[in-house]
Write a structure and sequence with these properties.
mainly alpha
Length: about 140
């Protein structure tokens, strides 16, 4: 299959995702930390953004189940693993700790690079180092 339409579709999806994060204010780590501060000045706006994201993702999965194949590929690449294991729990814990400390998760952090803020660049650099280390040292069954 021709890679160009897949690349253009991925770029368009990423741009829409980044625009949505920007319009919703989720590029601001203080807003995310405000959501996590349930005993202080709690900011519920992230709950609405997450609710909208779950709705869109749910509709996408429902549509994917009805289609014979994606528009620009031969098969859907849907998750098949269903077991909760130690690497999953450890990864989720690290993700949560990083999100709580920094106010960023990977998608918004990459989108926030557009702000030119040094803390964002440091976070993304650390994230890339962590990804490379995981790839290098993980043991796959």
């Amino acid at each position: 299959m021709n890679a160009a339409p897949r690349i253009v579709a991925a770029l368009a999806a990423g741009l829409i995702f980044g625009l949505g994060l920007s319009l919703s204010g989720m590029l601001d780590p203080t807003r995310v930390r405000g959501f996590l501060d349930v005993t202080g000045a709690w900011d519920p706006s992230l709950a609405f953004v997450l609710g909208g994201a779950v709705g869109v993702a749910g509709a996408g999965y429902a549509l994917a189940r009805r289609l014979p194949h994606p528009a620009f590929d031969t098969d859907f690449e849907l998750p098949t693993k269903r077991r909760i294991d130690r690497p999953l729990v450890a990864g989720a814990a690290l993700f949560g700790i990083g999100w709580g400390l920094s106010g960023f998760c990977p998608g918004p952090a990459v989108a926030a690079l557009s702000t030119g803020a040094l803390p964002v660049a440091v976070f993304v650099a650390a994230m890339l180092v962590g990804m490379a280390a995981q790839h290098r040292f993980a043991r796959y069954p």
